[in-house]
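Bench notes, bay 3.
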Amino acid sequence: MKAFRITALFALVVAVAYAHAGEPLEPHDLWSAWRFDPGVVIPIGISALLYARGARVSRGIKPWQQICFWAGLLTLVVALISPVHPLGEVLFSAHMTQHEVLMLIAAPLLVLSRPLVAFLWALPFEWRRTAGRWSKAEGVQRAWLFITAPIAAWLIHATALWLWHAPTLFQATLDNEWIHSAQHLSFFLSALLFWWSLIQARNTSAYGSGVVYMFTTAIHTSALGALLTFAPTLFYPAYARTAVAWGLSPLEDQQIGGLIMWVPGGLVYMIAGLWLFAEWLRHSDSVVARRQYAD
């Protein structure tokens, strides 16, 4: 009987999640439109289990970092599993919101949490030792240093942003779930690289270059947002069929999406740039103070 109840509950969840599969989402379906894609749910679940097992203050993972991790993971759930995801398939503005949540909230929170340390502690000792040897291999070290160099991370992130917003590629994400997943993955991974390369900076020159890269990112993303906002024509015709049901014309939907990238998105980069600038000044002052003390 217990097994029957569990099976029935699972069937109900699946039925609710996929009740309108293949049909455009409409307002009355919004709150039941959760997407339990195994390719998303399983990695998030494994990450949560590993972090819960490995994150301890005694292992150097501070409470505020643990808060950042769980907040970042919850943000991923909101962006990829909650109704925000299917809403992004019928409204361009919702799709843009989803991207901004992935790149400007989830990615920096997860970088600040330093999850790799907790993940390693969660593994058996032999696995940790093997992972440590592998990570110290010369080829792995060179590749990691190359892609996490601020200029490389900046270029990768900027390329992903502009390339995927080309009308042909963006349209393809709405027609093919694999391409859609590739878009989200490239946005999220490139954002992780970008924030890692700048937040983990620990010397004066790195802080200085980080300020430049953060502000230039604010500029080029704002430019893309402004282009979408003021464009007189519709870039993504697929939304012409679905936006009307939500009380928006297709062009209004595109303009709102552009504003979301332009204003809130640009503001996050500007605030992060100012924080890096403050850290740069603080670090410079501490270096000067140590030199004066040494003299």
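Next record in the batch:
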Amino acid sequence: MNSVIYGQTFGTINHQFTIVTLVPKLKKNQYAAVQSRFDNTASNVVNAPIYLESPNEKSINPIAIAKDFRKIYATLRVNRPDAVIGMFVVHAYPLVLLKRVLKFSLFTLVSGSDIATHQGVIWRLIRRTVFRSSLVVFTVAKRFSAQIERESGRKAIVIPTGTNPDYYKPLYDKDGIRRKYGFDICDFIVLSLSSLVELKCVDDIIKAVEIVNTKHPHTKLIIAGEGPLRPELEKLSAKLNVECLFTGYIGESIKRELYNIANVYVLASSSEGMPFSVMEAMSCGCVCICTDVGGLSEIINDSINGYLTQPHEPHLMANKIGDIMTLSELQLHLINDKARQTILHNYDFRKLTEKMVSIIMQKSSREFLTGT
């Protein structure tokens, strides 16, 4: 729900924003259900989702694509923006065709997953076209900036994603919150929060906890999120005798509570950008174990403010969890505090978004004045 998080931050900036989310028509009800969990009352932010005729980006139907293009054009014509931020580069190609007709400046934000999951020749050509047609390209990590320059010759401005440390913060009554969710004080809780899809590799987390359980049977797992692999993951946890709570979709307040009761937050993805969940967990002072993919090595300093491991290595992940179990309270406190300080100093979402919007306003004004 990146659009929700950006919407919350845009509400603090003195400017008018319209957030347009492209949603496959088949997922309209799912999108509405998730959107209803969030309250965005900012008067300067309007949500205007477009429900696409194309079922997914792998399906090529010229009629559906034409209808979707017309919907995007109609939305832009009604709103008449000065600047448009394409937040997923492989979906931004209609903006390249429309920007001169409707006279707006195009900016592109590369989150990382849009590069990692679209590796074909056609996608690289689309990305290069979008990059070269954008007034400024933003990206969330240095690793992606280097790839953008290799693909297109464009230098991207690195502005990481972040979180709101005033909301995602340590809570006091952690024992009470544990009891609320049915956990004992002595339980060692491992938390995972993500979509239940293949690239998130949640099965590796279940396998890692099963290994840890051979020595520490009080280890419990929480899997928060929803997706097509949920039935398969439920069967795996039962087969491996891993005590696991599957929560489904959860709201912001529940997320914050789970980050606070977890002893460890684990992200096992084979591909990532700069995931919000890791920064939320760190901001709550939760120890994170993450695979060294995307921009995660730029935020986590291994063994200092969290831990890094490799994808598809549940034994390595289990070893990391076991190492954390042996730390003293003082050692844990130091890691927790350094994790939160990392967010406070470098990943405050409001400051980062304000910086991006400031660059956009300066650059778009200059483009209108110079006609370039």
